[in-house]
Design a protein that fits this description.
The protein is an all-alpha fold. The protein has one domain. Helix content is 80%, strand content 0%. It contains 16 helices and no strands. Helix 4 runs antiparallel to helix 13 and helix 6 packs antiparallel against helix 16. The radius of gyration is 20 Å and the shape is globular. This is Chromate efflux transporter.
Length: 388
Amino acid sequence: MKTWLEIFLVSLRLGLTSFGGPVAHLGYFKEEYVNRRKWLTEKQYVDLVALCQFLPGPASSQVGMGIGLARGGITGSLISFIGFTTPSILLLMAAAVGFQQQGLIDLGIIDGLKIVAVAIVAHALLGMGKNLAPDNQRASIAVLGFALVLLVPAVWIQVLVIVTAGLIGWWIYRNKELPKAESLPLTLSIKFSAVCLSLFGGLLAILPALRALTDSLHIQLADSFYRAGALVFGGGHVVLPLLEREVVPTGLISESDFLAGYGAAQAVPGPLFTFASYLGMVIDGAPGAITATVAIFTPAFLLLLGVLPLWLKIQQAPGMRAAAAGINAAVVGILAAALYSPVFTSAVGNGADLAFAAVLFMLLVYWKRPAWLIVILGIIGGLLFYGV
């Protein structure tokens, strides 16, 4: 019980302060779970990030679920998810009934928090790069991955980079002695994993059939949002056009209400997938919000529970450890590309922005100040320098 309470309180604090999108979330997670609390080693953390980058769904939310799973079992995973997503869910439900996030934007808070995200992600990448791309070969894989993701702005390119890096890593390191993979402390069986994967595929097939047989609004919502959560790679920004096609042409929500909700989703902490909570609230009040939220996150949960135990067993094989060396280097490159776009490009528009980011980075890296303090300083800076 004490462990579960700790998981909830830590994830709730992250849910209240993690602005900046999924890449920034990963930076906040590393600072809190790896650097500060030592719940995972850096190698365990990056292996988990690599897997979640490869799976469809909200990568940062899946990483949080995985950390909760390792710390407190399946209950810990659910608690971690609830803590991290609840603030965003409640704020977006409030937005659906008239809460105006535009005021926060006018005050400059969001601008300041974008600068914070630059410092947080840069700090995370600094440590990951030193540990995961320590030689010429892996540094080259990281840079090539970085370049490809920037040059080919397509959702599938991240998956291609990870797979290709794995093959290159296997070829380079297959005959070299590598440290054994650091497995997460999980007790899930392969049989349980198979059940989760069966549920994932079964719901993907059954929900459209049920939708065709009934006029239930909640079956329609469950089908639309489950399919969006199950089939999207690349995170929250990619799921938005999928959701738009599900709810606007069908008349469930107007285009103006959809765009207003999208703006609100940019202004709150936590995962962008909680935009589903806003849409469900507009469509059918609190029951609709609950249905939409549960439906869009359920695929991520089932996939993580289904794939993670298999992944941990597979990566113990020598050939897989060689492939993982390349994959982890590629993850550094992918996150570096995301640091540039959208994190850096949306936050830094002039020299003053860059100077502010540099000061926060210095406080975080060299003065060893905690991430929550950097967030507070970012909010103060936003109010002072960016408010109208």
